[in-house]
Amino acid sequence: MIKIQISDIDTFKSDYLLKIKEDIVKRITNLNYAVSHLRDPDHINDNERSSAKHSTKHIIDLIRDKVIDIKDLKVAEYKNTLLNYKNGGEVMDTDLEPLSVFLDYLLDDTNDSLKDLLICAPEDLFTNNTKLLDDFNINEEIYIKILKHAFLYDSDIGGKVRQFFHEKNITEFCPYCNISRAFYSVNPVTGKIADQHQLDHFFDKATYPLLSLSLFNLVPSDSVCNTANKHEIHFSDELHLNPYISGFKNDMKFEPLMDEFGKEVLGIDIKLKIDRNSLRWKQLIGDQDEIHLAPKHGNINVFQIHTKYNAKSIYAQTSGLIQMFRDLATNEKSIRDILNSIQEDEQDNYENFKSWYEKYARGRFHQKNFGELEHSKLYRDLLDFVFENYPQNFHESVNDILTNSYLPECGGE
Fold it and tell me: Which pTM was predicted?
């Protein structure tokens, strides 16, 4: 998995708020009207009825577990309909006061609560959601279902969200697999879509409706990862990794399985370089010792990383790359020619080697750029593997370059 890198995070967040906040405020306001009307049908503001009626119907349908006709909520019959439900005890058996207090809180601009919910840091998504539900005592299933109406990811607001991500195009390739494109483009002549990503909800919409429209809960991904692999699996911070937080980094490495002559790649192995009892281990493969044993846990398992990278087409590509890397690793003169193509200082050596690698490997050298080209994580791991398995004295300068490239100031996460 590749971490999603956003160059100007503040602009990214402010543009998102500008795109959708006004529409969400309208929905929350209408839901708040409906809650107020259901709690006190005798004091209904006439100006609120038309805006609130669909939210009112939504609440009544949920509480009564059957559908009422929207015609019963026309302006002329609105108050009487609500009084009938209230007096019949069908609606008011549910205490709507906690919901009313919470909606007032979200609409209060002085506390930035809605803003925080929509653009909070990815590592705070679950905590913020849980805290809001606990603080306002709205954990019951009926409250969750009612709130879903205000944060519904539908053709209206959902369409604006998708448009935002189409415009931003924050990654070229799917961060979950680094194989398929997750890029939006249209034919400039016909206007028809040429490429299109999907948006995965890291925390699913049904269980976490408050997070349905949160910016860093929305992950551009390809259709196989989102629809075929993840589908209805419920993600958690404990057993899964959000690509806005981190990629696989060097905690997971691809390693080639070679034939007896060391010429052809027979398979791609996955090695974890972390403590078995760590949270990171769980996020990568779950609570088991090996991949495949917990298919719903860990990003490696959920997104079928091992299977996807064990394809004949990948074997053919990697065999040639490994041979090229091995030829270089065993030829001191070739290394010197690359490093000294513009020889002034150590920084030139670094840039020369990076340029050589990206030209011939057709992958990105730095972790921060892996999302720009397919297989970048795989190719870089193979480069490291080859140089780690040859005598140090042949390529000490290259080893330093490879090590330094993972530092944050040089392009590491």
Answer: 0.90
